């Protein structure tokens, strides 16, 4: 098994005022020219789920209401996985490249979660015109915007 070194570039900061990505000072210059992108792909670490036991889980019992009874972990968005890496597309509300903050509308990360990388969302590389999903989740929203008003609580078995 090969080992890789991955370094955090910042942290998620959530409060009553909203959610920001706080970039560590050495990485602030990397924000140049990010202005103008409406969305970013945030690659972050599920730090609260990083244990030897969690990394060994490869299958899970029916995590979603209509899903198969047993699912491989790669067919879920669970934080329990061999490498607890997460990817979230987030709407950019404001970038302050002096203080190194990116205010975002939403992210499914907890306060303090380490951020590994940020990439601009570009439709030419990130948008799929007609994606296909299994029947059990075909009723889920077709966009990030629709997801904001979808009752996700009715979908999960946890």
From TrEMBL:
Domain of life, per lineage: Bacteria
Keywords: S-adenosyl-L-methionine
InterPro entries attached to this UniProt entry: TrmO-like_N, YaeB-like, YaeB-like_sf, YaeB_N_sf
Transmembrane segments: none
PROSITE patterns: TSAA_2 (PS51668)
Domain TsaA-like residues, every copy: 6-130
Coiled coil start-end: none
Entries under CDD domains matching the protein: UPF0066
PANTHER family reported in the protein's UniProt record: TRNA (ADENINE(37)-N6)-METHYLTRANSFERASE
Family: Belongs to the tRNA methyltransferase O family.
Protein name, entry field: TsaA-like domain-containing protein
Annotated source species: Anaerostipes rhamnosivorans
């Amino acid at each position: 098994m090969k080992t890789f070194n991955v370094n955090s570039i910042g942290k998620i900061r959530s409060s009553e005022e909203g959610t920001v990505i706080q970039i560590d000072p050495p990485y602030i210059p990397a924000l140049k020219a990010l202005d103008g992108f409406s969305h970013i792909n945030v690659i972050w670490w599920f730090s609260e789920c990083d244990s030897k036991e969690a990394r060994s889980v490869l299958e899970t019992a029916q995590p979603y209401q209509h899903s198969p009874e047993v699912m491989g972990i790669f067919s879920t968005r669970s934080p329990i996985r061999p490498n607890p890496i997460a990817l979230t597309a987030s709407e950019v509300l404001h970038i302050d490249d002096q203080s190194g903050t990116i205010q975002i509308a939403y992210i499914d990360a907890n306060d303090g979660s380490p951020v590994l990388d940020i990439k601009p969302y570009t439709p030419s590389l990130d948008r799929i015109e007609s994606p296909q999903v299994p029947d059990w989740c075909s009723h889920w929203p077709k966009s990030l915007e629709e997801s904001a008003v979808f009752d996700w609580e009715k979908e999960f078995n946890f």
